Here is the input.
Amino acid sequence: MLEKKLVTLVCAAGILACGACFLPPLPQHRPQPPQVQLDLQGVQSIRVEVTNNSEPHHLDPSELAQAVANSINWRTGETGVTAHVQKEAGDAVLAIAVLSEMATPGPILANGGTVRWTFDVKTSASLTKLNGQTIWHSSEAYSRFSRRFAATDQADVWKDPMLQSWLATSLSQRLVYRMFYVF
Here is the structure.
């Protein structure tokens, strides 16, 4: 028994002596975030305003505005800019208009009877400094998202509480990415 413990101890010491624990750390390759393409000189804070001009008015403008502000604030380390939804905040205003919103059902899927819904949202947006200078503008940009829902009726899908949050977050991430990185 003592021999087995000594052999184990000698083997462990041999492994340590050969450098298993003293190897240099493995390099970590994190992808570099894309460079911000937008000239934000003089802008430290953005006020986000959203209006829903679509006929059905399904998307909640206040929820979308908060999601856009959160998406901008998530990138503050890269951009140096924060966002708010209060009326008095901001060196610039990001005005977003939802022009249309549509949900289209796909076939009923065999796994649990869910339906893959496709959501098409058309927006226009502009980022303007308080002096009136337009920094960025996107007109009639289409965004398409898909997700499974149990509901088979369009009215029931739009009433789903998870849809509003998911769609606002998805749309905000795409819009903010396009604003900062695609230009």
User: Anything to note?
Assistant: The helical segments are 2-17, 61-74, 76-79, 154-159, 161-182. Residues 161-182 form the longest helix (22 residues).
